[in-house]
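Chapter summary example.
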Amino acid sequence: MDRSGKHILVLENDLATLNQLSHRLAEAGYRVSPVADADSASWVVRNDRPDAFIVELTMPGVDGFEVTRALRSDGHRFPVIAVTTAAGALDTRARAAGADAVLSEPVDRAELLRAVEEQLLKVELREHERPRVPHVLVFEDEPRTQKMMKAMLETAGFRVSGAETGTTAMEIVDEDPPDLVVCDLAVPGIDGFELITALRQEFGFRRPILVVSGLDTEPARQQARAAGADDFLAKPVDRAKLLGRIEGLLGARPG
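The structure predicted for these 255 residues follows.
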């Protein structure tokens, strides 16, 4: 397995153990984010999604069980490897919380690397076995319009996420990057122009963005393209035209 670029988050309140685990992973070629508390771990998950998470179970305050349950409740599916001095006694409870593996502390270097590699390999195998369904994010604040567009796309075989606010749209892009974004412009709060700019400049999002908006003026079209939009459709839009533009953009700029 190519470990370069794989990001491992390590949450351990004992600094000596945290340094030891992080050093062993970094030595093996992983990119490591070592943190000593649950708040810092949550920040890393939100801002720099890990490929795997190593967590101490019996920390004071918010412990590893709570952190793992919260991650699974929020929909995060990356592997969680729990470490504890009481591995046998806590194994069942840890797995019930959502852990994929449990290691006994002090963790042997070879055992640590083997566990991480096994979990990452399982993720790769699942991804290869699963048919690739293009993911489309629909940023639209009007519920009926969003529901209509989602139905059009889902019946055509796309996986669709909906967002009514710019903040929600950015969270989806961060946690589950879409293959294409359908973007309204005149939205309260973070509008479509601001969202497109943020995706291109702050998130490094390079996949297609299709504007679908009732703000059909030449200045609006120019501003959207200047922000980073690839194409523009005026509302109301019919199903055939929407699907045609999306398929054309995905065909021109796959993945």
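To summarize the output: Residues 7-128 form a domain with the Rossmann fold fold (CATH 3.40.50.2300).
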